[in-house]
Specification:
Elements: H1 6-31, H2 40-64, H3 67-86, H4 111-119, H5 121-135, H6 139-145, H7 154-177
Helix pairs in contact: 1-2, 1-7, 2-3, 3-7, 4-5
């Protein structure tokens, strides 16, 4: 039975919602082959690990009213947010932010493929033709492709806003606990 006050529980709910959005983004990133970007993996593991460790400390604080656990959770959350800001480059543009028909299957064309296409006259010609055809498409065709709301970029934005709100709630809650 939780012994924490309402603010402690609201902070926990906010933290869990933030974690859920983060898990969704990681799942999407992995499904699109993001783990191949080796430099991103340690940053994401550090970000997620610090957040989960902080969440465990916060749960201990809410259940046992252990004030040091709240401060430890904050100490873990601060660098986790820093690493989270560092991961923005992974999501810019958010994986799969172009319609599937327009993007290669992985969403990114490697530099080696572009270099090979530019070194081969036939491939370069195909690349230029495809780019011209896509960019000179009739406005009606472009409007048809982009019809409806495109909400995918709101996922990382919501995750960031929730993370900031969670940190603010946790600071207020820890300070009010003493």
């Amino acid at each position: 039975m939780p012994t924490g006050n309402a603010l402690d529980v609201v902070t926990l709910v906010s933290w869990l919602a933030t974690e859920a959005l983060g898990a969704f983004m990681v799942r999407s990133w992995l499904a699109r082959g993001g783990a191949r970007a080796a430099m991103s993996v340690p940053v994401l593991v550090g970000h997620a690990g610090l957040n989960l460790a902080g969440l465990v400390c916060w749960i201990v604080f809410v259940i046992a009213a252990a004030k040091p656990a709240a401060w430890l959770a904050l100490a873990l959350l601060a660098p986790a947010i820093g690493l989270g800001v560092s991961t923005v480059t992974i999501w810019t543009p958010y994986p799969g932010d172009t319609p599937e028909a327009e993007a290669p299957s992985s969403g990114v064309v490697p530099d080696s493929a572009i270099k090979r296409a530019l070194d081969d006259e036939e491939l370069a010609s195909q690349l230029v033709d495809e780019l011209l055809a896509r960019n000179l498409a009739q406005p009606a065709e472009r409007a048809e492709r982009k019809s409806g709301w495109y909400l995918r970029p709101l996922v990382p934005a919501s995750h960031g806003v929730l993370a900031i709100a969670t940190f603010a709630l946790a600071v207020i809650s820890a300070v009010s606990a003493g």
